């Protein structure tokens, strides 16, 4: 069976959580979060949680634990805190929980970022992995890059990834 026909025929309505890591955003002005919510609906899925958390590693981890235990989505998008500054701690907060990494995501994300923003792509530490059969994507809060990556990589493969975990 061709994977493209597989994706179309076996769509499952996924429950998706969005976490934005920021000290200045509010839910109403979380541009990438608002855009992703629209895309989730467009692709036949449901946003069941959307929250902003500060750059504190403990707060990020506590929120992730809460979402995993209480909200129980199929997918979590985390935007922000993936750069190289001292306050960028999303990767350090999330990766210890990963049971499996989706290593190819990081490489494809970097390639797509390079096509969009040239050598500035070197500053991103985007990653993805699996925790308790939940898919986690961690990306920077750069709207242009995340929009392009979601359209070109994540949403076309999301159902197929979920079927394999």
Can you describe this structure?
With 165 residues, the protein is an alpha/beta fold. The chain has a single domain (15-163), classed as MoaB/Mog-like domain (Molybdenum Cofactor Biosythetic Enzyme, Chain A, 3-Layer(aba) Sandwich). Helices cover 45% and strands 20% of the residues. The protein has helices at 3-9, 31-42, 57-71, 90-94, 103-117, 143-163, and strands at residues 15-21, 46-53, 75-79, 100-101, 127-131, 134-139. The longest helix is centred in the last third of the chain and has 21 residues, at 143-163. The mean pLDDT is 90.
Number of domains: 1
Strand order of the largest sheet: 2-1-3-6-5-4
Percentage of residues in helical conformation: 40-55%
Q: For the record, what is the CATH homologous superfamily label?
A: MoaB/Mog-like domain
β-sheet strand percentage: 15-25%
Poorly predicted regions: none
Radius of gyration: 15 Å
The CATH C-level name is Alpha Beta
Task: Compute the number of helices.
Answer: 6
pLDDT averaged residue by residue: 90
Based on CA inertia axes, which overall geometry fits? globular
Give me the strand/helix succession.
Answer: HEHEHEHEHEEH
Distance between the termini: 19 Å
Keyword list:
globular; six-stranded mixed beta sheet; single chain; 6 helices; 45% helix; Molybdenum Cofactor Biosythetic Enzyme, Chain A; 165 residues; alpha/beta
Q: What is the strand and helix layout of this fold?
A:
Layout: H1 3-9, E1 15-21, H2 31-42, E2 46-53, H3 57-71, E3 75-79, H4 90-94, E4 100-101, H5 103-117, E5 127-131, E6 134-139, H6 143-163
Parallel strand pairs: 1-2, 1-3, 3-6
Antiparallel strand pairs: 4-5, 5-6
């Amino acid at each position: 069976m061709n994977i493209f026909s597989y994706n179309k025929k076996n769509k499952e309505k996924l429950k998706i959580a969005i976490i934005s890591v920021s000290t200045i955003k509010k839910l109403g002005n979380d541009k990438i979060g608002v855009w992703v919510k629209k895309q989730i609906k467009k692709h036949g899925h449901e946003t069941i949680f959307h929250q902003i958390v500060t750059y504190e590693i403990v707060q990020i981890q506590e929120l992730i634990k809460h979402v995993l235990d209480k909200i129980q989505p199929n997918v979590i998008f985390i935007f922000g805190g993936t750069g190289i500054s001292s306050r960028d701690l999303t990767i350090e907060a999330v990766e210890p929980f990963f049971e499996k990494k989706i290593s190819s995501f990081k490489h494809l994300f970097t390639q797509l970022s390079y096509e969009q923003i040239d050598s500035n792509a070197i500053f991103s530490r985007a990653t993805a992995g699996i925790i308790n059969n939940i898919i986690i994507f961690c990306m920077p809060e750069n709207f242009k890059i995340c929009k392009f990556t979601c359209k070109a990589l994540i949403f076309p493969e999301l159902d197929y990834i979920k079927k394999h975990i």
